[in-house]
Amino acid sequence: MKKSFAIAMAFLLTGVIAGCGSGAKDGEGAQASTASAAQGEVKKIIVGTGTGFPKVCFIDENGKLTGFDVELVRIIDERLPEYEFDIQTQEFSNLLLSLETKKIDFVAHEMEENPERSAKYLFNKEPYAHWRNKIIVAKDNNTIHSLDDLKGKKVLTSATSAQAQILESYNKEHDNAINIVYQNGAANDTVSQLTTGRVDATLGADFSLSLIDPQGKLKITGEDLSEADILFVFRKDDPEEQKLADAIDGVLKELKSDGTLGKLSKEWLGSDFTAD
C-alpha cells in the first residue's frame, strides 16, 4: 500500500517536476528517485537480520519480528519509494556469507566496521548507533577486569561478531590464552551460562547488558575494549549496492535531524545511543 501510494503521488508530481527544467540543483536526487518510482521501477531489496538479539532484532510475544534495527529498516523503507525492503531472518553467523553469495542485499544487525570487515564489505557512511564493547561477568565475580584476566577462562561469544574478533585478535598475540566458547547462533541463555559458571565471561556492547539481563544478575567490568559506529553492511565493488548505501545515508541524516532516530533508540534501547 505504501509503495502504491508513493507511486501514485509521484505520477501527480511528474508534470510539476518536468516544468522546473534542467537547472534545478537542490533535490535533484530526490526528483530522480520519485521519477523512477513513477515509472514503476521499484527495486526489491532483501535485508538480512536475526531473531535472537533482545530489543534489537527479535520475535516478540505476538510472533512479530521487531526491535530497534528492524523498525529502523522499516522507517527507511517508508522514505525510499524507489525501493521495497523485504526483511528476512537468519542465524547471525550466516549473514555475511549470505551477503557475499547475494542471498541478501544488506545486513541490519548492529554491525560495526573494523579493518577485517572493511577489506571485504562496503559500509554506509552515516552511523545509526555508537557502542562501546565491555567485558560482562556474573555480578558476584570480582576477579575479572581486563582481557589479561581472561587467560585460561571460558569466554562466550558469537562467531563472526565484533566481540569474537576482539578475543581472536588477543589470542593471536597471546598463544590462544583465552578459551573462546562460540554459542550456536544468538543463544538466549547467556545469563544462565555466566551465573552457573559454565563460562566465566562474555563481551558485549554497553547498551546490551540491560537487554539480555533485565533481572540484573550480571555486570560490566573494566575499561572499554573498543568503541565503534554501527552501520549497515553491503557488498563491495557493486555500483547498485553503493547507490543503495548512499540513499540510506540520506534518509539517516533526515532521521537524525528530525529526532526520529534518537526517539527510536530511547524506545527500544532505553537511551539515545545514536551519537558518540
UniProtKB/TrEMBL annotation:
Q: Which domain of life is it from?
A: Bacteria
- Tell me the first and last residues of the signal peptide: 1-18
InterPro entries named among the record's database cross-references: Solute-binding_3/MltF_N (IPR001638)
The Solute-binding protein family 3/N-terminal domain covers 44-272
Q: Which SUPFAM superfamilies match?
A: Periplasmic binding protein-like II
Question: Would the keyword Lyase be found if you checked this record's keyword annotation?
Answer: no
Q: Which UniProt keywords apply?
A: Signal
- PANTHER family linked to this entry: L-CYSTINE-BINDING PROTEIN TCYJ, MEMBRANE-BOUND LYTIC MUREIN TRANSGLYCOSYLASE F
Task: Tell me what this protein is called.
Answer: Transporter substrate-binding domain-containing protein
Q: Which organism is it from?
A: Paenibacillus puldeungensis
Source taxonomy: Bacteria, Bacillati, Bacillota, Bacilli, Bacillales
